[in-house]
Specification:
The chain has 450 residues and is an alpha/beta fold. Helix content is 30%, strand content 21%. The chain has helices spanning 51-57, 129-135, 146-155, 169-176, 184-193, 211-222, 252-273, 282-288, 310-323, 344-357, 385-392, 421-428, 439-447, and strands at residues 2-8, 11-19, 22-23, 39-43, 46-47, 62-68, 74-80, 89-90, 160-163, 198-204, 227-234, 278-280, 328-340, 358-368, 401-404, 432-435.
Amino acid sequence: MILRLFLNTHAEVICLSVIIGGIEPGSVAENSNITPGDKLISLNGNEIVDVLDYRFYQNNENVIALVEDKNGNVQKYRFKKDEYDELGFTFDTYLMDKQHSCKNKCIFCFIDQLPKGLRESLYFKDDDSRLSFLFGNYITLTNITEHEIERIIKMHISPINISVHTTNPELRVKMMKNKNAGEVLKLLKRFDNAGISMNSQLVLCPGYNDGEELKKTLSDLISLENMKCIAAVPVGLTKYREGLCEIQPFDAVSAEAALEIINEYGDKTVELFGERRVYASDEFYILSGRKIPDAEYYGDFLQLENGVGLSALLKSEVDAALADIEDNSGAPRVISLVTGVAAYGLIREICDRCEKKRCGLKCNVYPIKNNFFGEMITVSGLVTATDIIDQLKNEDLGEVLLIPACMLRKQRDMFLDSITLDQLSNALGVPVDFTENDGYLFVDKILGRE
């Protein structure tokens, strides 16, 4: 992002601009005189600061672009195209400037609980409203500017995903250690009044924002017509909390109490809106020993990324996949699967059913105890290759080891501890394959039907 003064129609204007990295072949901008290194100033009179401005204001059939060349000359270019066609400019970074980092010091922040020595990218805390819209990231609204707020409303960017945690101003400041944290409910009401759809996340910490505080938060949130989905998840606590605020983990009793409140307010949203909008993550059901609801309970599964309904969706898809398969026999097949401790029961159940569908199939399922982060971490997505190797190195794993894709980064090539799939395969002496959270594909992988 570059701050410049430039002359336009004899008036001196302060404007932001972004550097154009290239022009896409075949695009409407290909035959212009615009070259890499020139600066895009505005589209149809609207200043271009980043990717949201560019994507929003290029959506016109007639586009006037102001571009400053490398000699400082500002030129006007007119483009005619179909409304949603790309202009064809490319930029050196996707956002066109630096990703906005988080300025909070939340008492429950998982990144603050990471051990030293992991790859650098894992220690970056993002809090970027643009990533909320583009990729579904959750933001806290503590670092958002008035310009960003007005832009969200003007562009009607929806949905916005927000880490709320509590609507009690004093408690939110205490939990997030940011003086601006107490303004969240005002901002939520502002977005609601503008018709902006929102999803919210509550990381619950026993003794802080559960109990009566949770009731207040949920009461405030369900009063917002455009708050479409609220997810409550239990705090994740690693063994690396030296010097951090003391937080107790949820146990069966406290998880049950939280679940009662969450379901109570979920029932209220059914009465208010004709649909359930408040959900507990699967972890709360597992911790309390309650049965996870069926898939129909979760509507459109708006918060799978928070572990809300993941088990129900997988089970439902597996049910459908197995119903389409006739009992069959085949060559003997022995495979192994790994999972986090929390999901072991579900994965074992699925494998038992697959074994009944195919004679000669044997599935070994291994719940991996999380020694790397600590035994209180039981979700599959935080299992490392180090723990898999340590716990399976003496096991006969059969013809393939299946791992859930959530254990890997987005590129599906590396674990949190920077060990690759190939390195895991070499360490265990068995081919390693990953499975997405898709019941149909999961069944095919288990049965060897690819």
